[in-house]
Amino acid sequence: MTQERPFILGLTGSIGMGKSSTAQIFSDLGVPVWDADAVVHDLYSGNTPAVRGVQKLAPDAVIDNQVDRQVLKQKIAETPELLKQIESLVHPLVAKDRQDFLQKATDNHAALVVFDIPLLFENGSDRICDAVLVVSASPEEQKRRVLERPGMTEEAFQFILSRQMPDTDKRAAADYVLETTTPQAAQEYVQDLVANLTKDRTDA
């Protein structure tokens, strides 16, 4: 008999909305979390197929077997067609890592997994999820949090926002919305959501 795969909850939210903190709450509750950013970071470090591929496409972006993502972004800005080449190289590797993660969670009889993907709606990853949780906050709170980050400027913040789907659109497309007003509220919301999403499976 084939083992039932876990319920897949996509987790996303614009910059400064509290996504990383929310992912940590899921993890602390024992829910396996697949972190897209962390996977790309690992793929871009060491003697990996991704590093070797980037080195062929943009040699200046690889220093000591590490992809410098800032340099790579600059190269892509200068040569827009480079983006499709990088994506065709990296996306299959990311997809394989995600599938391996899901298979391991299935083998371990997990009832729920979280796919933490910053550009979940933007790159169509919502299609591989059973439901999506969007973390949100007021525009004022978002801006305050982001501009408190070291090295962040108003210009950089606006550029990042320009690449992301507006928060209002994300909220409209979500199955669940978490207002990250306080850590306690977020903790309670996630606990309730985990209980609800796993109830039918753990009762079965």
Instruction: Please give the number of β-strands.
Output: 7
Q: Give the N-to-C terminal Cα separation.
A: 16 Å
Second CATH tier, the architecture of the largest domain: 3-Layer(aba) Sandwich
- Percent helix, as a range, is 40-55%
The order of strands across the largest sheet is 2-5-1-6-7
Q: From N to C, what is the helix and strand string?
A: EHEHHEEHHEEHHHEH
Structural domains: how many: 2
- Helix and strand content put the structural class at alpha/beta
CATH class of the largest domain: Alpha Beta
Low-confidence runs of at least 5 consecutive residues: none
Tally of helical runs: 9
Rg for CA atoms: 18 Å
Strand content: 5-15%
CATH superfamily placement of the largest domain? P-loop containing nucleotide triphosphate hydrolases
Q: What spatial form do the alpha-carbon principal axes imply?
A: globular
Mean pLDDT: 92
Biggest pleated-sheet summary: 5 strands, parallel
* CATH-defined fold name of the largest domain: Rossmann fold
Fold and architecture overview:
The protein is an alpha/beta fold. The chain folds into 2 domains: 8-32 and 112-199, 3-Layer(aba) Sandwich (Rossmann fold); 39-109, no CATH class. The chain is 54% helix and 14% strand. The chain contains 9 helices and 7 strands, in the order βαβααββααββαααβα. It has a 5-stranded parallel β-sheet with strand order 2-5-1-6-7, sandwiched between helices. Helix 1 (19-28) packs across helix 9 and helix 3 packs antiparallel against helix 5 (81-107). The longest helix has 27 residues, at 81-107. It is globular, with a radius of gyration of 18 Å.
